[in-house]
């Protein structure tokens, strides 16, 4: 069955239900733009005007600004919208803004929050007059483009709908018996030094000798350096500890796994019966390591012959800009990511069907469910898209 036939919504991460006949019509755009002009989050005189990174969290169906001092920190129980606006030279003329919108879905976010983030992402794109590149970001498989937005990404437990929350935004950060894992993202090719910080279960079973762990007991902070951790992980852990101790002046003790005294951290995490020197500490990292497909593929979605078709145009590393046709919509399976490119002359039907086609494609392939998905319109492509095409 071709990807454009018998399409169904993917459970949990569908963008929106809609009347396909009206999607991408003039009426559709006017209605969405009118809705966008009433959203306070976008109408602050800054969004769409100034370059920068802006973040909002979804709270009870509302788009709530995320405090700038928390940028790079996300709760696994929440959904967020992240906008990156970058000023570039436009063919030698005056500067113009290129926009990337990421809707980030924590692995424990609710369907209501995920759906609201997705819908509001479309609305924000309308507010920006359809010039933004849209990205679906899943907590377990962050894209290189997303990781490059922040010096480090910090994932905390809990969320707005959860009673288990370590951060009170009106107060200083208070971590008690929290265990943070600091590690290099194993799949970040473009971001070689992409360091993630994940809050994990405060147990000795969470330890891994290839990473660094920060154990905050409230009155003291311990750093446990696995015997195979990297210098970059040690450096990033030191920065995280600095952030933690700015608000509260407590003692910090850094211990290598190879030191006898490091046993006190294992004991504090419930491993009193564990022999630290004979035990090998291994725990799977909280990120996806989906296998990258070796062959890139480019597909065309077109109704030029009357019926809607979805056909393989080219595969391999010879895919280039000239393979794209302004009259159609294309899906690029770049191995580590999936992109949809919408030509300026694409028909209403082609524009309306791209989402269902990509959902169907992902459901039929192996190792694609956790990949980031991006959508871009001709003339507003960012560097991430062209890198995926030409790499």
TrEMBL record:
Q: Which GO terms describe its biological process?
A: actin polymerization or depolymerization
Q: Residue limits of the Gelsolin-like domain?
A: 63-146, 195-245, 321-386
Recorded hits in SMART domains, A to Z, give: GEL (SM00262)
Its GO CC terms? actin cytoskeleton; cytoplasm
Pfam families xref list? Gelsolin
Molecular function terms from GO = actin filament binding
Alphabetical list of CDD domains matching this protein: gelsolin_S1_like (cd11290)
Q: What is this protein called?
A: Gelsolin-like domain-containing protein
């Amino acid at each position: 069955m071709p990807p454009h036939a018998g399409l169904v919504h993917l459970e949990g991460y569908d963008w929106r239900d809609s009347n396909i006949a009206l999607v991408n019509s003039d009426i559709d755009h006017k209605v969405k733009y009118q809705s966008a002009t009433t959203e306070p989050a976008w109408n602050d005189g800054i969004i769409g005007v100034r370059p920068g990174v802006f973040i909002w969290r979804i709270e009870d169906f509302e788009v709530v600004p995320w405090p700038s001092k928390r940028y790079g920190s996300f709760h696994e129980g929440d959904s967020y919208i992240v906008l990156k606006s970058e000023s570039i030279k436009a063919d030698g003329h005056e500067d113009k803004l290129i926009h990337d919108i990421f809707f980030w879905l924590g692995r424990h976010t609710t369907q209501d929050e995920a759906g609201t983030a997705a819908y509001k992402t479309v609305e924000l794109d309308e507010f920006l007059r359809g010039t933004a590149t849209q990205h679906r970001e899943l907590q377990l498989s962050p894209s290189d483009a997303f990781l490059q937005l922040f010096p480090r990404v910090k994932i905390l437990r809990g969320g707005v709908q959860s009673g288990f929350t370590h951060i009170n935004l009106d107060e200083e950060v208070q971590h008690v018996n929290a265990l943070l894992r600091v590690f290099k993202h194993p799949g970040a090719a473009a971001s070689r030094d992409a360091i993630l910080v994940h809050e994990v279960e405060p147990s000795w079973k969470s330890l891994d000798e290839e990473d660094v762990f920060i154990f905050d007991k409230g009155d003291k902070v311990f750093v446990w350096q696995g015997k195979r951790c990297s210098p970059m992980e040690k450096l990033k852990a030191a920065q995280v500890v600095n952030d933690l101790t700015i608000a509260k002046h407590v003692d910090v003790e850094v211990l290598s796994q190879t030191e006898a005294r490091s046993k006190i951290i294992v004991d504090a995490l419930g491993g009193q019966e564990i022999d630290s020197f004979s035990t090998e500490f291994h725990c799977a990292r909280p990120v996806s390591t989906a296998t990258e497909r070796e062959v890139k593929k480019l597909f065309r979605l077109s109704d030029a012959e009357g019926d809607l078709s979805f056909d393989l145009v080219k595969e391999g590393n010879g895919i280039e800009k000239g393979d794209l046709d302004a009259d159609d919509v294309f899906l690029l399976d770049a191995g580590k990511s999936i992109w949809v490119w919408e030509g300026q002359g694409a028909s209403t039907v082609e524009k309306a069907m791209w989402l269902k086609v990509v959902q169907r494609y992902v459901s039929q392939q192996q190792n694609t469910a956790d990949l980031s998905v991006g959508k871009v319109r001709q003339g507003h492509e960012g560097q991430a898209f062209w890198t995926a095409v030409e790499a």
